[in-house]
Design goal:
Radius of gyration of chain A: 21 Å
Structural class of chain B: mainly alpha
Number of domains of chain B: 1
Structural class of chain A: alpha/beta
CATH class of chain B: Mainly Alpha
Low-confidence stretches of chain A: 1-5, 8-34, 36-63, 67-71
Largest sheet of chain A: 6 strands, mixed
Helix content of chain B: over 70%
Number of strands of chain B: 2
Order of helices and strands of chain A: HHHHEEHEHHEHEHHEEHEEHEHHEH
Shape of chain A: globular
Radius of gyration of chain B: 20 Å
Number of domains of chain A: 3
Strand content of chain A: 15-25%
CATH superfamily of chain B: ABC transporter involved in vitamin B12 uptake, BtuC
Number of helices of chain B: 14
Mean pLDDT of chain A: 81
Mean pLDDT of chain B: 86
CATH topology of chain B: ABC transporter involved in vitamin B12 uptake, BtuC
Helix content of chain A: 40-55%
Oligomer: heterodimer
CATH architecture of chain B: Orthogonal Bundle
CATH topology of the largest domain in chain A: Rossmann fold
CATH class of the largest domain in chain A: Alpha Beta
Chain lengths: 335, 335
């Protein structure tokens, strides 16, 4: 019985129905709120949603509740942000994490930990039940912060932004959990790797690149691409590409057919998060680009698909992500 | 008798010129400036000619889609306002749009990524959703022998809307939170169809719907005065009402499948037109079809150029421009 349980739970976890069980009233309320917004102020979600989508993503420490009389070195950490979980595991302190969010998929050890909800639906009861001495939360989780305050639970909150914020957050979390040295070493090695990639691509030509993070399958409609702000934009520039939407100072831009043709990207990279098995389908779906034959990337067959969470989670794996982008853009230099 | 024929010619000429102007101007103007000479230059192959690609692949289908959607929604509005004898009736009133939204949500949430003849699953599913809603409303209307009760239709329609919204919320509740952005964006409507295939796909429906509507102008005049009055004048009320119901629903279904729900056109264009040409449906129907097309083309032009390179959802532009204009006409008519 005990042997079958983990397998059953895993199968259960990856099924669609799992979601129905873990979602809380908060998320329902939020979706309903968005819904009303969509009907009342139809433009507003266009601004909000793409940025919410990227929350899996970049970082600046903001506000932190004083640890008070609790131990200076937290031993029972709950991380509600996949990026923060990855950071703590990468520092070598994963053994002190006792709970993670529903969206944590990396590293494998993190997936075995108890799940306490997500960005929109943290389960406060389960959080309290795990008796954490530090909860890492996202700065927009206002209700959660208030409830943690009421429960006298110490927390660390931060917000994602551009690429340099990621290493800054790693250092800040390191200080907070009493692993400043290891955090510093991790952050420095990441910065060094990124600097190496930047140095290797500096002298190479920087093709104008379109970084796509979503569109309707089978068509070029509802396409969201990276604007000139955020960690994906930064990764692209380090990897030796010039973002075709660099002049638009937003994390995401909805690109129309006209913009795509007019901006003439030399390379198109479509990012897909999640299962690597999706890659084959995504590759096949690249055929829809043939309708826009005047785009140099289409004519020269420089359309690429990259699949992986490292493009959605602004944690330590951004180095890998940047390297993959560099490999895609400059295959002869990066092997 | 001189008056009606002369007025019909005058109306069609007047609004026709407006539509023609919109059709000529809109494809030439956009977020990028293109050279028409180069766009129509046959000596460069089409694939190497960005100007031609922008003109023929990005803009022309978009303008044609706007024209089609605008006239479909306007005609549906006219028919439903007459049928329900209610000035507030819109193409959404009978729940057809909500049915379409439900279909689209199902396609997005469950990743039904098939495409038939260049049309992706989302418009197909939304069309099926509208047909489902239509059949329910039609069944309601058939439950009575003599004439439709506008009350039953209105209440039934509103109930359908609420019911479909609830099902949509339930789907959202089950779905991955990253899909929320896509579904919300669909709900804002977009005319960037990117090819002619979706337009061609809805054409048969459009032809049938407009064909039916063109026979209805006389019955609608009488029905809008009251079912008994119409019956007394020898109109087959039940048959006319059913045809009106079906044709208006088909119009809405085709428009929503093509562009998603675009608000306001179906409510206001008929009223604008009535303020100009009076309430005779022989004039109101063609005038609304022409003016709805011209109006949506103009609104879409504003949507794609006002904040370029960003783009506004066309639905807010229709309301922002149409609202004050309508109020001004109301004030003028009151004097």
């Amino acid at each position: 019985m005990t042997r079958t349980l983990p397998a059953w739970r895993r199968a259960f976890m990856f099924s669609v129905w799992r979601k129905a069980f873990v979602l809380s009233v908060w998320r329902k309320a939020f979706v309903f709120f968005l819904w009303r917004r969509a009907l009342a102020l139809r433009w507003l979600p266009a601004v909000i949603i793409p940025s919410v989508l990227l929350l899996g993503c970049s970082a600046t420490p903001s506000r932190e509740r004083a640890a008070g009389a609790s131990a200076p070195r937290p031993q029972r950490i709950i991380s509600l942000i996949p990026a923060a979980t990855e950071m703590i595991f990468a520092m070598g302190d994963g053994n002190r994490i006792v709970g993670v969010s529903n969206y944590d998929r990396f590293p494998a050890d993190a997936t075995k930990l108890p799940k306490v909800g997500g960005l929109l639906d943290p389960n406060v009861e389960r959080i309290i039940d795990l008796r954490p001495d530090l909860v890492i939360v996202y700065a927009t989780q206002r209700e959660l912060l208030e409830r943690l305050d009421r429960a006298h639970l110490p927390y660390f909150s931060y917000e994602h932004r551009a690429l340099p914020d990621i290493t800054q957050t790693i250092r800040a979390i390191g200080v907070r959990i009493g692993s400043a040295d290891r955090a510093n070493a991790l952050a420095s090695s990441m910065e060094q790797s990124l600097a190496e990639i930047r140095a290797a691509t500096a002298a190479l030509p920087h093709p104008t690149t379109l970084l796509v993070f979503g569109r309707d399958p089978g068509t070029l409609r509802s396409m969201y691409v990276s604007g000139g702000y955020g960690f994906l934009h930064d990764m692209l520039e380090i990897a030796g590409g010039t973002n075709v939407f660099a002049d638009v100072g937003r994390q995401s831009v909805q690109a129309t057919t006209e913009m795509l043709i007019a901006r003439r990207p030399e390379v198109v990279i479509e990012l897909h998060y999640g299962d690597k098995a999706k890659a084959a389908d995504a590759e096949k779906d690249l055929a829809v680009w043939n309708a826009l034959a005047s785009i140099p990337a289409v004519r020269n067959h420089l359309l690429h698909v990259l699949v992986g969470d490292e493009f959605v989670v602004p944690g330590p794996r951004v180095v890998e992500g940047t390297r993959e982008l560099a490999k895609t853009l400059h295959p002869e230099t990066f092997k | 008798m001189r008056s009606i024929r002369a007025r019909l010619v005058a109306t069609i000429c007047g609004f026709g010129v407006l539509l023609l102007a919109a059709l000529v101007i809109a494809p030439v103007v956009g977020s990028t400036s293109i050279s028409l000479a180069r766009a129509f230059d046959r000596s460069t192959p089409f694939a190497d000619n960005p100007d031609a690609q922008i003109f023929f692949v990005a803009r022309l289908p978009r303008v044609l889609a706007a024209a089609l959607v605008g006239s479909l929604l306007a005609v549906a509005g006219v028919v439903l306002q007459a049928l329900l004898r209610n000035p507030l009736a819109t193409p959404d009133t009978l729940g057809v749009s909500s049915g379409a939204a439900l279909g689209a949500m199902i396609a997005i949430t469950f990743h039904l990524d098939v495409s038939v003849a260049g049309v992706s699953s989302i418009p197909l599913a939304s069309f099926l959703g509208s047909i489902l809603a239509l059949s329910v409303v039609y069944a309601l209307s058939s439950a009575r022998r003599r004439g439709l009760s506008t009350m039953v239709l209105l209440l039934g329609g509103v109930t359908m809307q609420s019911f479909f919204s609830a099902v949509i919320l339930f789907l959202q509740y089950l779905a991955d939170f990253t899909e929320t952005g896509r579904t919300l964006r669909w709900l804002m409507g977009t005319l960037d169809v990117g090819s002619y295939a979706p337009i061609v796909a809805v054409l048969p429906v459009v032809v049938v719907a407009f064909g039916i509507v063109s026979t209805l102008s006389r019955p609608l005049d009488l029905i809008s005065l009251g079912a008994d009055a119409a019956a007394a004048r020898g109109v087959d009320v039940l048959r006319s009402e059913r045809l009106a119901l079906i044709s208006a629903s088909l119009c809405t279904a085709a428009a929503v499948a093509l562009a998603g729900p675009v608000g306001f056109i179906g409510l206001v264009v008929p009223h604008l037109v009535r303020l100009v040409v009076g309430s005779d449906h022989r004039l109101v129907l063609p005038a609304s079809a022409l003016f709805g097309a011209a109006f949506l083309i103009a609104c879409d032009l504003v949507a794609r150029t006002a904040f370029s390179p960003l783009e506004l959802p066309v639905g807010i532009v229709t309301a922002l421009i149409g609202g004050p204009f309508f109020l001004w006409l109301l004030l003028r008519a009151a004097r």
